[in-house]
Amino acid sequence: MGQSHYDALGGEPALRAIIGEFIDRVFDDVMIGFMFRNADRNRIKRMEFELAARHLGAPVKYTGRSLRDAHAKHRIMGGQFARRRKILEEVLVEHGAPEAVIETWMTHTDAMRRQITGDNDDVCND
Q1: Is domain 5-116 given the CATH code 1.10.490.10 in the classification?
Q2: What is the helix (H) or strand (E) element at residue 108, kind and residue range?
Q3: How far apart are the C-alpha atoms of 42 and 82, rounded to whole Å?
Q4: What is the pTM of this model?
């Protein structure tokens, strides 16, 4: 069996660094940060780490709610989803993540879209 994407990324220390920076940028972002004003930053980091680690092949259990349930009470528009996606992609590139890891992670992110927003486009309209 080949190396997992989790291992190729650098394991727990590398993934925690990526998730930490990613979530900090999301929380502080001028376009979408307001959506997290009542959220627990450390809890979100923990849930994002578990979700990413599990998807990338680590023996880590995701302990959060389903993505649909976790996001159901929030009205997340396509443009907001796209902004979060762009921040993630930038952080992965800046941290030197292998291209195969970035591609897998972004494809997984795109596959989760329907669980997070019903918008099919990347526009923020009200």
Answers
A1: yes
A2: helix 99-116
A3: 23
A4: 0.87
